[in-house]
Automatic annotation (TrEMBL):
InterPro entries: MULE_transposase_dom (IPR018289). This is MULE transposase domain-containing protein. It comes from Cinchona calisaya. PANTHER family: OS05G0489400 PROTEIN, POLYPROTEIN, PUTATIVE-RELATED. Residues 149-241 form the MULE transposase domain. Residues 510-532 are annotated as: Disordered. It comes from the Eukaryota.
């Protein structure tokens, strides 16, 4: 009615005669976002085609790809806040994390020399985070080896997540530190490694080993930060580069892996000669790579691990797929909660189902396998600490029990790999558990002259259940409950977070060549590239 807010209904038709309108112009992405916000909260990873089909099936109207994308993005912004808002709240998040976790190391870096003249705002570039108890847990019983990896972030600003992952006593991955940055290059990796070096208090870098996939800029950064480091490379990536260099075939691949798994230098030379007989260029290509980077025969024994693949980083990346698709603060929170839950699960297993075991389950499984293989070996005692172990294939190994070392004498033309595997030397890098030697155990304790109660003492502590409990117990005081940022800001500090008003840094992602480019390079090398 005119002059009022009342609407007068003059007529009402109960039956409609107009046709059904499938392409409805009144449909807006805002309406769709408000209606499906709760469902998207439960399933934020729903893909766009499934979301569109669900909306169209339930509402009987057409929803375009652009409308569906905008609706989902708007709903996520309603749930988590916009991407820009999260970047502007980084200081609040850092303050709350530091308040709840004393001693945490959080470093935020801005773009050097940048300041918006109109708004006087710096530009965000990198954020590094690691908890004190992660360092304490890693240094408590984990081996002096860690892997480095980088993975893409999925949101519009893109960027990379740099990670450092160690190995726990049960041969599982142990996250150490992570950082969000603009891209992978020498500068970003050097910045990350310098913080990691300070965080782990690494002074004698020659005692440490790292493994990587030869990411962009990582080799030069490692040489600058850790000049004496033992740097291993993932053999899977070595094989991929080997195949791209036109060295293909099952025979070559099998011989390559035999050379990789060789446990003595003599065996390694023998396998390299076999590769040269198949393809001389392939052997020359491998000779250009340092053998200490990819073959067990040349690995140092100090890390007590002969890992050939960078699976610790790959496994961790596979567990954080959902987190990588979130905004930066939501991602950091998801990573924190995942690590907290993983450590608690390991602690519960160690206190419950593993409490009756001396060693961790994966170590016990490997020990049983080695004991079975070593049943055919014959030990001969030379003195109180020196033994000569004869293998069925004719090989003879000299084992020094007090020094926990072994020697090898080749009585035959070849070396039996299973025999080498079953022997599980203390210092030999030819077994996954070089530190968990089972020589006295597998070769029958009484034959080697060890008392029965001492047969398990030769296994070092880094693979025992107690070691895993000690690593996990370091997380008891980690991750105190974090309050919502709206509730945790101290009332007496109103200007605490006005120091930085952050502007996001947008950069293009550096990545591996696309599949088309990789194929084109192979075709050119093969001479099969079709010119236009």
């Amino acid at each position: 009615m005119k002059g009022t807010s009342i609407i007068q209904l003059r007529s009402f038709r109960t039956k409609r005669k107009c046709g059904f309108v499938y392409h409805n112009k009144c449909v807006k992405s805002t309406w769709v976002a408000n209606k499906y916000k709760a469902k998207i909260r439960l399933n934020p990873r729903i893909d766009l085609p499934s979301f569109r089909r669900k909306v169209m099936n339930e509402n009987k109207f057409f929803l375009s790809k652009d409308q569906g994308y905008r609706a989902k993005r708007l709903a996520l912004s309603m749930i988590h806040g916009s991407e820009e808002d999260q970047y502007n709240k980084i200081n609040e998040h850092i303050h709350e994390v530091k308040r709840s976790n004393l001693g945490i190391t959080v470093v935020m870096k801005m773009v050097d020399g940048y300041c918006d003249t109109s708004t006087n705002r710096p530009k965000f570039q990198r954020l590094y985070m690691c908890f004190t108890t992660m360092r304490e847990g890693f240094l408590a019983r984990c081996r002096p080896l860690f892997g480095l990896g980088g993975t893409f972030l999925k949101k519009s600003i893109r960027g990379m997540l740099l990670i450092s992952v160690g190995i726990d006593p049960n041969n599982g991955f142990f996250p150490i530190a992570y950082a969000a940055c603009e891209e992978q290059n020498k500068d970003s990796w050097a910045w990350f490694l310098n913080l990691l070096k300070e965080y782990l208090m690494i002074k004698r870098d020659y005692e440490w080993t790292l493994m990587s996939n030869k990411q962009k800029g990582i080799i030069k950064a490692c040489e600058a930060v850790f000049p004496n480091f033992d740097h291993r490379f993932c053999v899977k990536h070595l094989q991929s580069n080997w195949s791209q260099a036109i060295f293909k075939g099952k025979a070559l691949s099998n011989t390559l892996w035999a050379a990789v798994k060789a446990t003595t230098i003599a065996q390694f030379i023998c396998k390299m000669q076999e590769i040269a007989e198949i393809d001389l260029d392939a052997a020359k290509w491998l000779d250009e790579k340092g053998p200490n980077e990819w073959t067990r025969a040349h690995f140092r024994t100090l890390p007590k691990c002969d890992m050939l693949l960078n699976n610790i980083c790959e496994s961790f990346n596979s567990k954080i797929l959902d987190a990588r698709e979130e905004f930066i603060l939501s991602m950091m929170e998801s990573l924190r909660k995942y690590i907290m839950n993983r450590m608690q699960e390991n602690r519960d297993r160690a206190n419950a189902s593993w409490i009756t075991h001396i060693f961790c389950p994966k170590i016990m499984k490997r020990m049983k396998k080695n004991i079975k293989h070593a049943a055919t070996m014959i030990p001969h005692k030379a003195n109180d600490t020196l033994y000569e172990v004869a293998c069925p294939c004719g090989d003879v190994y000299v084992v020094n029990v007090s020094k926990r070392t072994r020697g090898c004498s080749r009585n035959s033309g070849g070396i039996c790999y299973l025999t080498q595997e079953a022997l599980t030397q203390w210092d030999a890098p030819g077994t996954q558990e070089a530190c968990a030697t089972t020589i006295p155990n597998s070769l029958k304790t009484k034959k080697l002259g060890f008392p029965k109660e001492r047969k398990n003492r030769v296994i070092v502590h880094c693979v025992r259940v107690k070691a895993l409990k000690r690593v996990a117990d370091a997380f008891k005081r980690l991750y105190d409950a974090l309050e919502n940022l709206t509730c945790s800001v101290p009332a007496k500090e109103p200007d605490l977070f006005q120091v930085f008003i952050i502007e996001k840094s947008v950069t293009t992602q550096s990545s591996q060549p696309s599949k088309g480019k990789r194929n084109s390079s192979v075709k050119r090398a093969q001479g099969t590239w079709n010119l236009p």
